[in-house]
Amino acid sequence: MEFRQLSYFKTVVEMGNFTAAAKQLHMAQPPLSRQISNLEDELNVQLLNRGAKGVVPTDAGKLLLAYADQLIQLRAEADHQVRFLGTAVSGKLRLGMISSAVGVVPNTLATITDYYPNVQLLISESDTYQLIDQLEKHQIDAAIVRTPFSVRHMREEALMEERMVAVVPKPYETGLASRISIHDLDALPLIVYRRFRNIFNQTFFEQGINPFIASYCDDARTAVQLANAKLGVALVPESVGLAYLGIGVTIHPINFAGWRTQVKLLWPKDTAASPLLKLFIQQFHD
């Protein structure tokens, strides 16, 4: 079984017929059909059901397609890692990033591209657990994520620790100090970034309070925008509150040591860090 055959097979399945697949692959149809037939003969199993309207994979074909996707992706990963192992000043860095890292990373990215113009940054944005999954599948080289999370087989570098703040619209400002306590939140309608829901609820339980949760959301930026719209008081990491602060709201640090969060850089232990990734990590020490 060759990578070429797997690629041909994958294309045939995706296109649904040999004619379209051959066109996509820039080859004639008969050689393509022979390659798929050779693959079936080698594996001694029928991979495709052929009909007048096209082809569909058999159960065996569906299984092979799943493995083909993984193998082709791993081959691309190997090529990516080896090709740029010998140089730290060119190549591609595939970086995953949480939206709430907006206040942490941009200056570092700018430094790299300023001094190393041949470096291409491929940035994908997602939540912490999706990024960890992408790291484990070697779909990205490194990820900027936020605690809390549980992970194995990863190296990590702490980039920043920050406190939680309350983004408070004017209607709820009355009587609030510049720094507020957990108990000050009891009388306010809260907008909670769902990432911290369990931590907040545990604290409220331990402190003997039961504040009204006006809204839960899955993005810290959304929480701040809802506060800007005067729907309630958003509880978010300080960097997010500062980055998306609107008119008519103020930021109040929350005086509670238990509500601290770290932004971290993660990369797989089982993959040698390329010089390019090492350069990126080093920027946070300079």
TrEMBL record:
Keywords on record: DNA-binding, Transcription, Transcription regulation
SUPFAM superfamilies found in the cross-reference section: Periplasmic binding protein-like II, Winged helix' DNA-binding domain
Domain HTH lysR-type positions: 1-58
CDD domains per UniProt: PBP2_LTTR_substrate
InterPro entries for this protein: LysR_HTH_N (IPR000847), LysR_subst-bd (IPR005119), WH-like_DNA-bd_sf (IPR036388), WH_DNA-bd_sf (IPR036390)
Domain of life: Bacteria
Pfam family, one: HTH_1
GO cellular component terms given for this protein: protein-DNA complex
Stored Gene3D superfamilies: Periplasmic binding protein-like II, Winged helix-like DNA-binding domain superfamily/Winged helix DNA-binding domain
Family indicated by similarity: Belongs to the LysR transcriptional regulatory family.
Entry GO MF terms: DNA binding; DNA-binding transcription factor activity
Protein name as annotated: LysR family transcriptional regulator
Iron found in the keyword field: no
Keyword Isomerase: no
